[in-house]
Specification:
With 156 residues, the chain is α+β, with helices and mostly antiparallel strands. The chain has helices spanning 11-19, 41-45, 66-75, 102-117, 145-149; strands spanning 2-8, 24-32, 52-59, 84-85, 88-89, 95-99, 128-131, 136-137. It has a single domain (2-149), classed as 2-Layer Sandwich (Peptide Methionine Sulfoxide Reductase, Chain A). The protein has five helices and eight strands, in the order βαβαβαβββαββα. The chain has a six-stranded mixed sheet with strand order 7-6-1-3-2-8, covered by helices on one side. A hairpin with a 2-residue loop joins strand 4 and strand 5. The radius of gyration is 14 Å and the shape is globular.
Length: 156
């Protein structure tokens, strides 16, 4: 199994999207990239920890490639919005790929260049690509939140 970590706005909807991908073994939502150990949702929402809401995807590379997961990532949010997605705004909602190793880093950078050059977006892609670090699992009530509530998406 391998791990991929993506930030693309509110983690509830991003998790629901990745959970449907064949080859994804499990998903969990959490906070990554910040400077505070074990932050709470309230701390992250205040924007004072430097964390981003993320989804950590455990996947079977024999069934789904990291590159295929990148395609899902680009399609589930607007990577041209800086520090926001829809009605959610702030650093914690930025578009980011946290890479586990050099091969993920190279694939993510190539994928970003391709997305930016595709003509699909009216503005430049502002997604940040960083080495994976400091993942802290979010509180249990956030895990599979939309499924627990019987919802398909966060926003209309």
């Amino acid at each position: 199994m391998e791990i991929a970590t993506f930030g693309a706005g509110c983690f509830w909807g991003v998790e629901a999207t990745f959970a449907q991908v064949d080859g994804v073994v499990s998903t969990s939502v959490g906070y990554a990239g910040g400077s505070v150990e074990n932050p709470t949702y309230q701390q992250v929402c205040l924007g004072q920890t430097g964390h981003t809401e993320v989804v950590r995807v455990e996947f079977d590379p024999a069934r789904v490639s990291f590159e295929a997961l990148l395609d899902v990532f680009w399609s589930c949010h607007d990577p041209t919005q800086l520090n926001r997605q829809g009605p959610d705004f702030g650093y914690q909602y930025r578009s980011v790929i946290f890479c586990e190793g050099a091969s993920q880093l190279a694939a993510a950078e190539a994928s970003k260049r391709a997305a930016d050059a595709s003509g699909r977006y009216l503005r430049p892609v502002c997604t940040v690509i960083e080495p994976g670090r400091n993942f802290f699992r979010a509180e249990e009530y956030h895990q599979q939140y939309l499924a627990k509530k019987g919802l398909a998406a966060c926003h209309a």
